[in-house]
């Protein structure tokens, strides 16, 4: 028999070194049954509901949750699909059942993502002169077009360090909040959607972000809206109303995601596009935004990855192709 001496810092239990060892890490990982039960509860499904959705017996769901039965790889994927689990959460579930992870989370500059990211930049460029942003799961800006850069540089000149988180930037009293005319309504809508997404994805980082921004103080003059006495809303969609100089710009927004992504970061990527909600805003974008970006009409400068700002916005002043909006070019405020 060959005796193997373990050095203290290589102790599998990690007790001598004070660091967690392999054994401790394995013991701390939740089992498959715990994963399954947690996601069933997140989805607010009974065992009977999940059994019907996955086309298995309620008894089998119970046995899987208690560890009396072990799932096949096909069963893990079927249950994950029935629970509409994010790709990021399916890997730990597969590993807990003893199978290899199925989905990769590539870096943004991975050659495998080149075609997908090229399509993102195409969408951003084609949306000019309207602003557009590509966001990751934490709402950090991955890419932006020149119109978004011009507006951000004008309203947030202090935001120089990437990545820019649009939720924090929107709701912080020293961010965009003082520039949002309908801030109270917009804040309530953002918090509602962020809370729903945190609940739907089970993402602790989104839940922490929701708690953080919900605690931000309201900017001067803003108040939490009282919806209990509100009648029927006259508008069909809540616009974002931004005060830029002497103008009030009104935008409606849409979110676009990839169809059938098999990479985790692409599964979590969303493109937020802003459209003019009235003629004065459309005219402002055509005349003022386009006039602040050299080379228009035509394709704007290509954005850089995960900068939170386009390449043009981070160049030296002498080399900028995306500038700030000059006060002299701003139209006078008009009633929306």
How does this model look, in words?
This protein is an alpha+beta fold and 336 residues long. The chain has two domains: 8-96, 434 Repressor (Amino-terminal Domain), CATH 1.10.260.40; 111-224 and 235-329, Beta-Lactamase (2-Layer Sandwich). 40% of the residues lie in helices and 9% in strands. It is built from 14 helices and five strands. It has helices at 22-28, 32-42, 47-54, 58-66, 73-82, 87-96, 114-126, 146-155, 166-171, 183-201, 204-214, 264-268, 279-291, 311-314, and strands at residues 132-135, 141-144, 240-244, 247-257, 270-276. The protein has a five-stranded antiparallel sheet with strand order 2-1-5-4-3. A hairpin with a 5-residue loop joins strand 1 and strand 2. The longest helix is centred in the middle third of the chain and has 19 residues, at 183-201. The chain starts with 21 loop residues before the first helix and ends in a 22-residue tail after the last helix. Residues 1-17, 295-321 and 327-331 have low confidence and may be disordered.
- What's the arrangement of strands in the largest beta sheet? 2-1-5-4-3
Number of domains: 2
Order of helices and strands: HHHHHHHEEHHHHEEHEHH
What is the C-level CATH assignment of the largest domain? Alpha Beta
Q: What is the number of beta strands? A: 5
The fold-level CATH name of the largest domain is Beta-Lactamase
Q: Can you tell me the overall shape?
A: elongated
CA-CA gap between termini: 85 Å
Low-pLDDT regions = 1-17, 295-321, 327-331
Which class best fits the helix and strand makeup?
A: alpha+beta
């Amino acid at each position: 028999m060959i005796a193997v001496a373990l050095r203290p810092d290589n102790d599998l239990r990690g007790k001598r070194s004070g660091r967690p060892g392999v054994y401790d890490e394995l013991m701390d990982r939740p089992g498959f049954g715990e994963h399954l039960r947690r996601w069933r509860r997140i989805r607010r499904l009974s065992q009977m509901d999940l059994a019907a959705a996955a086309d298995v017996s309620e008894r089998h769901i119970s046995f899987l949750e208690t560890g009396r039965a072990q799932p096949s790889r096909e069963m893990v994927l079927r249950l994950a699909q029935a629970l509409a689990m994010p790709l990021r959460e399916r890997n730990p579930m597969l590993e807990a059942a003893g199978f290899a992870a199925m989905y990769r989370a590539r870096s943004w500059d991975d050659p495998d993502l080149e075609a997908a990211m090229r399509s993102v930049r195409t969408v951003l460029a084609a949306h000019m002169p309207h602003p557009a942003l590509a966001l990751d799961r934490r709402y950090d800006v991955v890419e932006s077009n020149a119109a978004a850069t011009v507006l951000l540089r004008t309203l947030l000149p202090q935001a120089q360090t990437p990545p820019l988180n649009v939720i924090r930037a929107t709701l912080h009293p020293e961010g965009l909040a003082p520039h949002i005319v309908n801030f109270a309504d917009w804040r309530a809508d953002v918090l509602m959607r962020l809370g729903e997404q945190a609940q739907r994805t089970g993402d602790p980082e989104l839940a922490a972000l929701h708690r953080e921004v919900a605690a931000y103080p309201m900017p001067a003059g803003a108040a939490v809206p009282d919806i209990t006495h509100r009648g029927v809303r006259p508008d069909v969609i809540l616009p974002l109303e931004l005060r830029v100089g002497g103008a009030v710009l009104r935008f409606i927004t849409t979110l676009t995601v990839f169809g059938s992504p098999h990479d985790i970061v692409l599964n979590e990527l969303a493109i937020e596009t802003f459209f003019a909600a009235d003629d004065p805003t459309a005219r402002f974008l055509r005349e003022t935004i386009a006039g602040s970006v050299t080379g228009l009409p035509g394709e704007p400068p290509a954005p850089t990855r995960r900068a939170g700002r386009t390449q043009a916005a981070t160049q030296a002043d002498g080399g900028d192709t995306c500038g700030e909006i000059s006060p002299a070019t701003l139209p006078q405020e008009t009633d929306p």
